[in-house]
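fyi for ur records
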Amino acid sequence: MRSRRGTVAALSGQMAEDAVARLYQSRGATVLETRWRGAGAEIDLILRDGEDLVFVEVKAAATHAAAAGRLLPAQMRRIMQAAQDYCGQAGLGQDAAMRFDAALVDEMGRIDLIANAFDAT
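which gave:
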């Protein structure tokens, strides 16, 4: 039973990430990476939106509020460190224009994009 729940959760997460990527693409962004691993964290989506690199954390839950509650400050710090790692590996330097967005996906598949979601950390 536990492995089935894990498989369902992984597939649900992948579907949410795919939907979020499509939404960003429909708004003109380009997907550079999906599920990129580095510096102790996985970044769900890395996009180019104009001049900005956008690092997106996708959270899925029954409601947008529940999804938001799953994004914790320690995880945000790990993602920001991984983003610095990505910029270094990509030769972009530490001064690259970047932002950190959260994409909240509810059980109906509705997406709430929060630009600069990490600003409060």
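The CA atoms of residues 46 and 55 lie 5 Å apart. thats all i got for now
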